[in-house]
Amino acid sequence: MRKLFLIFILTIFLFGCQKDPFITDFPYMKNTDHIFEKVDYYKAYNFFENGTGAILLVYNSTQYSCPYCKVCIPIINNIGKDNNVETIFYLDIFEMRTNNTDEYHKLLTLIDNQVDDLIIRDDKTILAVPDLYFIVEGEIVKHHIATIYDEVNEKYLTVLNVDEEQLLKNIYQEGFTLLNQKR
Length: 183
Prior knowledge:
Shape: globular
Oligomer: single chain
Structural class: alpha/beta
Number of helices: 7
Low-confidence stretches: 9-16
């Protein structure tokens, strides 16, 4: 009986100590009921080819402090939950993009073949973050990069006023609405 009790306590301890990859990657979301699930490159690539749902390309905030991610992730989470989304996948592309890997180029090519508004820097098309994709059976039906683009200053905003935040919420809502309509 003691052995069973000890095994029970150890099991609870081990499972209780498992860390949530999302909270590890984005500690500022620690006390949030989130719907994000981290995926690896292969699952993400397959999702872009065949999946239905939402996937977010991001940088892990412990590797690179992305001010746009910090603004967008809580809004995406809330709008997703408002739309009864169970899971939004996310892929950390920091290492792939930094190291200019073959996987990064394959993913970039796959996405670039479906959308025509990716960011161009130094005459090269890149995957920017955060970028939320809405996909139905492998077809990108909508995506949105970063926050709100300030045409005057030619940059994305890192601080949003109430109207700008509502505009961003509306953009995400439109994407989730498209997903619900096409399912």
